[in-house]
Every structure is written in structure tokens, then in C-alpha cells.
Amino acid sequence: MSNEVLGIVIDSSPLDIVIEVQDVRTFEKNKSFLQVGQYIKILDGNSKHIISSISNVKAIHQLDKDNNPYFRFNIHTQPVGVLNNDGDFKRGNMTLPVPTEPAYIVSESDMYKIFNGNGSYNFQFGKLIQNNEINLMIDGNKFFSKHVGVVGSTGSGKSSTVAKLLQKSVGIEDNMNTNKEDQKNSHIIIFDIHSEYASAFFLREEEKFNLNILDVNNIKLPYWLMNSEELEDMFIESNESNSHNQVSQFRRAVILNKNKYNPDLNDLTYDTPVYFSMEEVCKYIENLNNEMISKLEGENLPKLTNGELISDRVCYFEDLYEFVPQSTAKADKASGGPYYGEFNRFILRLKNKIEDKRLSFLFQSPQQEDDKFEDIIKQFIGYLDKSNISIVDLSGIPFEVLSITVSLISRVVFDFSFHYSKIRHNDHLLNDVPIMIVCEEAHIYVPNNTSAQYRSSKKSIERIAKEGRKYGLSLMVVSQRPSEVSETIFAQCNNFIALRLTNYNDQNYIRRLLPDTSNGVANILPNLSSGEFIMVGDAVIIPSVAKEEMPNPAPKSQSVDFHNEWQKSWVGNLGFEHIIERWTGE
Questions:
Q1: 578 lies in a domain?
Q2: For 477-505, what is each residue's pLDDT tens digit?
Q3: Which residue range forms the structural domain that includes residue 209?
Q4: Regarding beta strands 135-138 and 123-128, do their DSSP bridges make them parallel or antiparallel, or are they unpaired?
Q5: 263 preceded by cis ω (within 30°)?
Q6: How far is CA 216 from CA 222, 398, 460, 508, in A?
């Protein structure tokens, strides 16, 4: 079929090669091969063909010299690469076909040459929609080592596609672990906002697949790991008139307390990840707030009711002190300290956070032991139980600390990758423990706005997006609302998997992010069926439309069938007492 001329080139530009088909019978015969997203090959010299992706098909109604109606057809295509007579395909093309060059339907043998002819494309994911006998082959190194964007509206099959992709990367196929005799070196961390991915990686015990699930009940995430920005995001209200004083004294208290508990460490800073006591910091701030300065001659220091003068405020960590009362009398003259009464709301906020049971995973942490920090790092990259997949279940994390939690984990993993890479570089080696972080529902905690509540998580994830690949750390950013995700993050993605998008703003946003040569195929985004996706980027030989089988086991991402449930008999005992127990944390 590929030897039969389809039409001729009538217009040629870098982004649009127009092919005219003048014969209706030829068009009708090949109609099934002329859908948007399929391919045309165009002769360009004697030994090579340009492969172009169909972006638009237009029928033009005309009248002949006898006023009889007839159609001619214009097929708009975007060039994506060159196929030579030896069967070698290469992306891009320095030349364009001139008008009158013949165009042909791409044959099945041509498709095999394009998609299966390059050995570096070694990771199979899905089959082409144009021909479901042909596998979509991906360059695994370029795909996983460069950031990936996965987008799709609710119900498009996004979660299933992500689960299947991750299952293949760790060797799960049809409920079995294909690597159980020889565990591979995959390291994947999933931020699971709706607690839906665990079911996709639970296998029978005999399959020897360890799944590492971290939630509010078992995660080790002590507050002392927070950096300055995360601590201040949690405790400081930036819109308060005295917030600058809160920051300065909180910073001072934290540094002093770190020095108290880590006397052997030099050059401790506000950001050094070592233990300090938040309860003692709170006492320090409360003593500052209550402090009275004696104005008697020769004193001019904070004074307690027992007459003791405080020359070193480090003692404020130990206890809540009673100060002499304010007085203007000459015999016991005293006035409020520099921060007297200024931190009332700040202290209340500190105590509320420390005592909040929902935040116990942050604040009920024992003092750091010698191996404590090591265990914290190990849990995220699977080294406590030799897990390829670590799921951070964020569903139980209170929303007001979600951003800080994501920021803290992301930063710890980044710092580990950074320092491990530097050690390897000293031996002229590369990082041999590459890690991918999967940000599910990324628009929730790295949105495209400047709100202060998302500042810490955006900063951490954006840092990974901009610098992570140098240190063996990559991102997979997953969202149903791509237009609401930080543009800095998506701009760093080299590969995209786009499922059906129904929102017009999201469609346009993704079109702007995709390479110019992919704009045509992006026009079919709203028409994709569930599970179908467009893949573009460095890792795929040419922009492709494909579909993958459902993952087995599957994630718990399906929606409730309202109408079916409403047609069933009334559900009686819901176990309200158990619901309330879980709700209130009893």
C-alpha cells in the first residue's frame, strides 16, 4: 500500500506540510489511515522519506467546468523525522520537501522500522492506537532520568496509567513480581494524596515484594529536620505587625537550643538538621514575653521574684520563671522587657501546634539518637525493608501542614542525593541510587500561585525540578489540572503523557508546554478514550498516541457508581461509632 501515491505536496514549511489528494476514490480507500495523529511519509530525495504527523484534514468543495460538484482534500501534517531506505529513522529534519513531491501512507513495515529499530528504546509501554500490533517503545534512561508530566481529567485513566508505568519499572506484571529472584535497584517515592496507590503494589507474600507505606502512624518526620523557612511557615503569621520580632527571637532560641543539645558540633546554624527541644523553645519565648527588667542602680537585668538577676537567658529553656511585678516605685522600680506582652498570640500558636494530636507525627519525637537521622533517610528510599516502592500516604496529614510535610520529605531526599552524588563524584563515579519522586495531584501542594501557605513545598519541589537530575533525582508530576500547577515545574519536564483533557484552559496550557512539532497531535486531547494517551518528549521516538493495559493489581481510584448504589436497598447499620472513633482519633 505504501507504494501507491496518496497525493502531492502543495505547501511546505517547518511546522506545516500540506498534501493535496485530488482523487476522491484514493481518499476514501485510505480514510482509515488519515486520522489526526497518524503518519504520512513524503519523498525527499531518492533515498529518504520525511515522516509527518497528521494534524488536520480538510475537504474542499469545488465545481468543475460543467458545474458538477467534486471534492479535493488537503491534509495538514507536521514533520517529525526522516526514514531512509536502510530503515533507519532519525528525529528532526534539516530539509523540507518541495511542492509536487509525492506522499504515501506509512506501511506497517515502516511503522516497525520507526518504533522498533533503535536499541536504546528499550522500555515497552502500551501499544499504538494506529496499529495495536506495534509496541510503543521508550528510551528508559531518557524517560526516568528526565522529569515527566502526566496529565488527564478525572476519569481519563490517569491513576491506572501511572500505576501501570510504575509497576513495569519495578517488575510487577499480572499480580506477580518478575524480579523476586533478583531484586532490582529501583527507588520510587509516591506522594499519595488520596491513599489509592497501595493496592496497586500489594502482592502475595510468596512474590517477595516489599511495599513501604509511610503514613501518620509510622512515619518518622521530627520537627527538628525543618529548615528556617518550614519552621517559620508553621509558626509565624507573616501578616502580624510584630512578625519580624517573632522571627528574630524564635531563630535565636532555636540556634541556642541546638547548641545546648549538640555541644560537639561546630558552626551550627538555624538550618542544621540536629535535635532541639520545641518545648524548651516555647518556654524561652514565654519567659521573654513575661520578662521584667529591674531599673535599680547597677542591675538593669531581668529580675525574678526571689531577687535573682538573669545574666544569661539560656536558663529560660529550663523553666517558666516568675518575674518581679512592674513598678515605678524607687525601691523596686521595674519595667517590661523589650518583648513584654508582645508574643501572647505567638506563644498560643506554638502551644497549640505542639499539643495538636493530629501533628503528633511531627512533635512527639524523642531526642535524636546516633542512628536516628540515618533511619529517617532510609525509610524514604526503601532501605529499612529493601523496598523498591515507598508510598507516603498524605491522606491523613492535616491540610495546614501538608505543604510543610511535602517540603520536608522532598528536601531530605534531595539533600541525600546531593551529598551521596558528591561522595561518588570524588571517586569519579556517578550516583548509583537514582530516585524518582511521584507527585500525585501536584496542583494541591505546588500550585501556580504565590500563596504563602504553599511557599515551602513549591520551593523544595521546584528545586528538584531545576537541579535534581544532576544528582540522580527526578520527578513525575501528576495532575488533573495542569494549568494550576507551578509553571516552573512543568517547564522542566522533558516528557509528557497526556490523557483526555476536557478543560479548555488545561488543553491550551499543555499545548504551550509541548514542542511545536507536537501541537497537531495535541488537538485530539479532548477526544481520547479512557486509558488512551499522547506521549511526547525526548524518550519517545516520535509523538505517539497509545494505550496500555489496565494494571494488575489496580489502584483504588475508581469513582463511586452513584446511580447503581442509589438503586440498592437502604443501608442500615453504618457503624457510626467506628466512623467517629476514626474521625476524632480516639
A1: no
A2: 999 999 999 999 999 999 999 999 988 88
A3: 136-222+368-560
A4: antiparallel
A5: no
A6: 12, 10, 21, 38
